Amino acid sequence: MTSVVLEEIPDRITLALEISNCQGNCVGCHSPFLRSDIGEELTPDVVDALIADNFGVNCFLLLGEGNDLQALLGIARHLRERHPRIETALYSGRESVSEQEIWDLFDYVKTGPYKAECGPLNSRTTNQRLYHHGEDITSRFWHRGIDPAASKA
To answer: 15: how many CB neighbours lie within 10 A of its CB?
Structure first.
């Protein structure tokens, strides 16, 4: 599934794509169906068509990593080469990402599985982190609305 979103990456009009074959098993997952091998294969031609059909996006976000790192990196390389004005983003459910190539190819990388007790990215108690070129920018989400974790106290 694809959506144009305004809140996943700060100050960006983002085309977000859900990636299947999720390796995570987060309690309270909002998209457990993504653990299955579903949907259409994401190829460079599909990426180009999605960008052409969504004029004005300036960020391309992959929601999940799937189970084929080389295919994921290939898509990121294609975006860098063919669409250099569009930033790239990856939401990983892993605690940390050690592959340098991910950090090199994605402008934004979100780490951390969802943990209900910690709250989402807009909660000051979240375990998740969003990085922009290696800099933690998670706090940019904290001004948005009421902190869900604080409202439980």
So the answer is: 23
Reported as a single tens digit per residue, the pLDDT across 24-57 is 777 777 787 887 888 889 999 999 999 999 999 9
From first CA to last CA, the distance across the chain in angstroms is: 36
Backbone angles phi, psi at 137, to 5 degrees: -115, 20
Nearest to 133 by CA among 108, 98, 112, 101: 108
Whole-number Å distance between alpha carbons of 81 and 4 = 22
- pLDDT digit string (tens) for 85-139? 999 999 998 999 999 999 999 999 999 998 889 988 999 999 999 999 999 999 9
Cα angle value 2/60/48 (rounded, 5°): 80
Q: Tell me the torsion sign for CA atoms 69, 41, 12, 91.
A: negative
Cα distance between residue 63 and residue 91, in whole Å? 5
Rounded to whole angstroms, the Cα distance separating 143 from 49 reads 35
DSSP three-state, residue 139: helix
Residue ranges in 90-147 assigned as alpha helix (H): 100-105
Q: Which tokens belong to 89?
A: 């983003």
Structure letter (DSSP) for residue 127: S
